[in-house]
Write a structure and sequence with these properties.
- By secondary structure, this protein is α+β, with helices and mostly antiparallel strands.
- It has two domains: about 170 residues, no CATH class; about 45 residues, no CATH class.
- The chain contains eight helices and seven strands.
- A hairpin with a 5-residue loop joins strand 6 and strand 7.
- It is globular and about 65 Å long.
- The two termini are about 35 Å apart.
- The mean pLDDT is about 85.
């Protein structure tokens, strides 16, 4: 059983497991709460998790990655990227703090906390307030490097972390959970043949196909939504 939140009926607040404040526990990718990323199993990009796309990037962000590369002299070497599973725990701790303390943000945002909001909050908090330095015995260099970093959590994974939090933390998603929206493959249009295609799956529809106009409309809706989100948050 992985550590989960518990609700204190006396304080009316969620309490985090002790492990979430232990740096040595946080940096071990074996403690990531959803090792097979099953929360995304019904979503459009799960089949591509080992090939490409945001889930592919997220998986290697959490667990690290080894890739073979060639130097300028033609010598082959292995390039390693370190696992960053600790970022999810930082996210989860930030989410709990915001859920427990709505006075930390404007009342207009109550009930609409999402992954991006949580990440922006965590990235503005001093690291010592998230991980007491006295808990650090392993990877002290990594911990000290984080003190100087501008961002503690990568901003591109907010939607994925929010889903994982709702699914694995033990919190009651409908009442207290983070707001999430449907994820879908982005659509684009080929400037040469005008086919509309899905960026990830690479499936496409040609102008002569019966569902072409519907897909064009959906592509426009995607673009309008993205513009509105970028302009208004």
């Amino acid at each position: 059983m992985r550590p989960q939140l518990t609700y204190n009926t006396e304080t009316n607040k969620w309490e985090i497991p002790l492990e979430w404040s232990n740096w040595d526990w946080m940096i071990d990718p074996e403690n990531y709460p959803d090792p097979t990323f099953s929360v995304f199993s019904g979503e459009y990009d799960y089949e591509f998790i080992d090939r490409r796309g945001i889930l592919f990037k997220y998986k290697h962000h959490i667990y690290g990655k080894e890739t073979e590369a060639v130097s300028s002299t033609g010598k082959t070497f292995v390039r390693k990227s370190a696992p960053k599973a600790y970022q999810y725990t930082l996210f989860a701790k930030g989410a709990v703090r915001l859920i427990n303390n709505p006075e930390l943000y404007r009342s207009a945002r109550y009930g609409s906390l999402n992954g991006s909001f949580v990440i922006n909050y965590v990235n503005s908090v001093h690291l010592h307030n998230l991980i007491p330095s006295g808990t650090v015995t392993k990877e002290e260099k990594l911990y000290n490097n984080l003190l100087a970093k501008k961002y503690l959590i990568s901003t591109e994974f907010g939607a994925l972390m929010a889903r994982t939090f709702n699914y694995t933390s033990g919190i009651e998603p409908k009442q207290y959970g983070l707001k999430t929206e449907k994820r879908e493959d982005r659509l684009s249009k080929c400037p040469a043949c005008e086919a509309v295609y899905y960026n990830l799956s690479r499936d496409f529809v040609l102008p002569k196909d019966s569902d072409y106009s519907d897909l064009c409309e959906k592509m426009t809706d995607q673009a309008d939504y993205k513009q509105g989100r970028d302009e208004h948050g």
